[in-house]
Amino acid sequence: MLDLFTYDFMQRSLLAAAMVGGLCSVIGVFVVLRGLAFVGAGTAHAAFAGVALGYLMGWPPLLLAIIFGLGTVWITGWVEEKGRMKLDVSIGILYTTTMALAILFIGLMKTYNAEVYGYLFGSVLSVTNEELRTIGGLSILVLGLILLFSKELYFIAFDQEMAEASGVPARKIFFLLLTLVALTVVISLKTVGAILVFAMILIPASTAYQLTHSLRTLTIYSVLIGISTSVSGVLISAVWDIPSGPAIVLLATSIFFLAILFSPKRERRLAPAA
Amino acid sequence: MSESANPIIQFDHATFGFPGVVALQDISLSIGTGEFVGVIGPNGSGKTTLCRAVLGLMAPLSGHLRIFDCACGELRCHHRAQIGYLPQKGVVDRNFPVTVLETVMMGRYGTLGLFKRTTKKDQAIALDALAHVGMDAHRDTALGHLSGGQQQRVFIARALAQQPKVLLLDEPTTGLDITTQHNVIELVAHLHKELGLTVLLITHDINMIRSHVDRLVLLKTRLFAAGPPVEVLKPDILRQVYGKELVITERDLVIVEDYHHHH
After folding, report:
1. B201: part of which helix (H) or strand (E)?
2. Distance of CA A229 to the CA centre of its chain
3. Does the predicted model carry a pTM greater than 0.95?
4. Does the residue B232 lie in any domain?
5. What CATH number is associated with residue B36?
6. pLDDT mean across residues, chain A
7. d(CA B157, CA B154)
8. How close, in Å, is residue B159 to chain A by CA atoms?
9. Which pLDDT tens digit goes with each residue over A233-252?
10. What angle do CA A144, A146, A151 make, to 5 degrees?
11. B237: in domain
12. For residue B151, what are the domain limits?
């Protein structure tokens, strides 16, 4: 198994998986705490519609993925802020609309395009050096912004109105969070695919949620779980010759259920009330 | 009657609401530095609107509101940080992963501003705030594991960690048992005296606060009465606002709404 590490493609895949796993698990903390889980799913499908349009028109797919992803989260955030509609309803509408667009664009291509399907299901083993650089650059940007605004992001995840009232520019920080979610989704698209990126964002943070009562510890656990399951998932996929996306997600899901079983919070729930 | 020397918050014929819905009409009221003001009124009388207005979250539709001598639109984040706010008690998810100290530290975030990290000094301020509410022994406890009264103390500590000039409390005793209600109000009165804070306390429980406040403000969409408790809590004034729901007992207790269920 060790000679696997000597292959260039394997090194690239492991690096890409570690970066995407780490990034998704950090942004996932805020997504889970702020209750934006569905936004992640909606954005992923919108970004995929962007990719499909890119291939149809011969435009850069990643750029269109960013435009579609950002457009979706900004419209969603704006609608929620205006109080016109609940967040899950507006994202539900945009989710299905962008998916319909994606199917339309793929239909208009007339011929089968394997690369487009790569973005839907993920193909970490075929990541190129250039894609690795893009993933690296965007990851540094997103993580840097999270680090820079971490205290505000934590506060709005806990209580946005309270944050606004105590002098945090909560609205702007909320839009920043939505933007970072969209960028994370786009960065991860090639590696894990539009369908599974949502799981990469949600599962490590939700697993960590079972294990701690501290925000700081939650973030550390989430990153450790995110990186280790991504890297292990890629190795499992290479050794057993199974698709990498499902390997990562199913491994993460198993750990999630183990965490629920052995959660200290669960013991507390089962204990008689003091 | 509603004038005050050295005003920190000043309403001048201010009307608040949404297009087509008036929540508070023609309010003229000034709240002085260091005053302890209780805001009372029936459900839907505009108490929470008043609260949102003072927080700078709602500009007047007409008239003026000045907070720290700024109009609502001029209110910046650092002004907001000078108002320590305790919202109506929401349900804290028992599993929400935040410790008592992490919760109180959030009170420093608005004061610090963007791009600045918390330091040992901020932690010392947060611990001091916890000591003021008697919760310093619980600094590492999960917030969700505390009782309702303890959680309120922690949220008051978070407001104090902002080192505010004004403490704004929206129904801080709702959902607490009677002993805990007393303890919370005693704590607020103590903080008012000890730290010289201007306190604006919104409540349904008139009896609980009447002996502590300098002034009571009675709302029913309009400013119905404002002044020392003895001037406001007159049977005829209260009956006009609360109608049949109100009973005043021989011991001068004001009982609203659920009196009949118990007698």
Report:
1. strand B198-202
2. 14
3. no
4. no
5. 3.40.50.300
6. 90
7. 5
8. 8
9. 999 999 999 988 889 999 99
10. 130
11. no
12. 7-227
Is residue B263 scored above 60 in pLDDT? no
Q: What is the secondary structure of A232-254 as a DSSP string?
A: HHHHHHHHHT--HHHHHHHHHHH
Is residue A164 within 8 Å of A81, Cβ to Cβ? no
Q: Which of B222, B227, B220, B169 is nearest to B197 (CA)?
A: B169
Report how far residue A133's alpha carbon sits from residue A95's, in angstroms, rounded to the nearest whole number: 29
What are A54's two structure tokens? Answer: 């890119």
Flag whether residue A220 sits within 8 Å of chain B, measured between CB atoms.
Answer: no
Phi then psi for residue B171, to 5 deg, are 45, 65
Please write the tens of the pLDDT for every residue from A55-110.
999 999 999 999 999 999 999 888 887 777 777 888 888 889 999 999 999 999 98
Decide if B238 is inside a domain.
no
Amino acid A81 reads E
d(CA A84, CA B175): 31
Which chain A residues are Cβ-neighbours of B96 within 8 angstroms?
Answer: 33, 158
The residues spanned by each domain of chain A are: 2-260
Chain centroid to Cα B145, Å, comes to 24
Q: Under DSSP, is residue A208 helix (H, G, I), strand (E, B) or coil?
A: helix
The CA distances from residue A69 to A2, A86, A98, in Å, are 39, 19, 10
Q: Is the confidence at residue B119, as pLDDT, over 70?
A: yes
Q: Per-residue pLDDT averaged across A111-134, rounded?
A: 88
Kindly state whether A157 is in contact with chain B, defined as any CB-CB distance less than 8 angstroms: no
B97: contact with A, CB 8 A cutoff: yes
Backbone angles phi, psi at B168, to 5 degrees: -115, 115
Number of domains in chain B: 1
The type of residue at A259 is: A
Interface of B with A in 19-78 (CB under 8 A): 55, 57, 77-78
3-state SS class at B23: strand
Q: Note whether B93 and B142 are within 8 A (CB).
A: no
Q: Which residue has the higher pLDDT, B37 or B88?
A: B37
What's the CATH architecture for A2-260?
A: Orthogonal Bundle (1.10)
pLDDT class of B1 with cuts at 50, 70, 90: very low
- Min Cα distance A32 → chain B (Å) is 11
Is the pLDDT confidence value at A167 over 90?
Answer: no
Grade residue B252 by pLDDT with cuts at 50, 70 and 90.
low
First to last CA, chain B: 36
Report the pLDDT value the prediction gives residue A266, as an integer from 0 to 100.
66
pLDDT digits (tens, 9 = 90+) for B156-171: 999 999 999 999 999 9
Amino acid code (one letter) for B183 = N
Q: How far is CA B197 from CA A12, A243, B168, B190, B193, in A?
A: 60, 63, 10, 10, 7
Q: Which residue from B85, B115, B145 is facing A166, i.e. has the nearest CB? A: B85
pLDDT in tens, B172-215: 988 888 888 999 999 999 999 999 999 999 998 888 899 999 99
For residues B76-81, average pLDDT: 80
Q: Which two tokens stand for residue B198?
A: 């201007």
Please report whether residue B258 resides in a domain: no
